[in-house]
Prior knowledge:
Layout: H1 27-40, H2 48-64, E1 72-77, H3 79-90, E2 96-100, H4 103-114, E3 122-125, E4 142-146, E5 148-149, E6 154-155, E7 167-171, E8 188-191, E9 203-208, H5 210-220, H6 232-240, H7 250-265, H8 268-289, E10 293-295, E11 307-312, H9 317-326, E12 342-346, H10 353-370
Parallel strand pairs: 2-3, 2-4, 4-7, 7-8
Antiparallel strand pairs: 1-9, 5-6, 8-9, 10-11, 11-12
Helix pairs in contact: 1-7, 2-7, 7-8, 8-10, 9-10
Bound molecules: pyridoxal-5'-phosphate.
Amino acid sequence: MTDPITIPAELLPADGRFGSGPSKVPADAMSALSGLGRSVMGTSHRQKAVKSEVGRLRAGLGEFFSLPDGYEVVLGVGGATAFWEVAVFGLVEDRAQAASFGEFGSKFAKAIKIAPHLGEPTIVTADPGTAAYLSFEDGVDAYATPHNETSTGVAVDVKRVAHEGALMLHDATSAAAGLPVDLTETDCYYFAPQKGLASDGGLWIAILSPAAIERAERIAASGRYIPAFLDLKTAIDNSRKDQTYNTPAVATVVLAAEQVDALNAAGGLDAAAKRCAESAGAVYSWADARSFADPFVTDPALRSNVVATIDFEGVDAAEIAKVLRANGIVDTEPYRKLGRNQLRIATYPAVDPSDTAKLTEAIDFVVEKLG
Ligand SMILES: *Cc1c(COP(=O)(O)O)cnc(C)c1O
């Protein structure tokens, strides 16, 4: 038995949570939640206290994303995975084109493909670590892609395919709040709030364009079978009243509202995106400078500023992650199905760039000890 490796205190980040999701929830948000205590938790979601928290979150997101005219913040229960089905039932008319270059993009593509009421989608694929791109296709009424593929750390720009009448859907579960976006380039910017937004799980949030709302209303009126839980029209109607169709994860709403308010106070999306770029940039340049580490995403233009994936050579990354965990630095393991000798480091807005810098020093220390 070798002695356990103890990382010196001066190399330890102040907060050791680097998971890509669920991700670090700031201590201030936790205090605010406990301060709200009995007035919100354990009370009816149909009464003012909870509805005003939903309203605070919706308004805060509107400010944060500079909501274009007619766009609306809609939310419901079930996370991004539930929203895939919401979109399958309520946004895709018949034929979709979906980009698949990692676990999450591929899951949504599959949900579309197996839906019995939809036509055969076109799925454009690319190897993990690269990106697949959407392009004009006759007969397609919805285009879908992740903004940031959380499983691989690849980010693409949010950009419309020039196709009159077709909707653009962007999965921003890890991108939201950390990567720049112009919402006029999309019709549906959706996410679960436990990744980029530093909240807990259980909800989906979708920012919808007027065209997406119109589509949802038209499909809802078409007679298509839509399970009530996945009915986007119902979610839109409830969201307009600062409610959800069924009981929401109230703490998740409060924590998300806290984070959005904090980000707005700190300079909004531009400032948050800059912070993430700085944080991730430090990780990538550190890896570039080390003989034992390399950014997994070889094209620098595709490297995510919110999820940095680093391949290791000559040293077992799983062993590094284990030592880090024993020292209170958690969730740096790579996406389980990717199967690479890799660490995955979230650099969301909630993560302090000085902590990211400390993390790289801690890894250097561990690698030297293991070597
Ligand atoms: C985590 C993740 C999801 C799934 O989110 P859930 O809330 O667990 O359903 C979907 N898409 C992306 C890009 C993700 O990172």
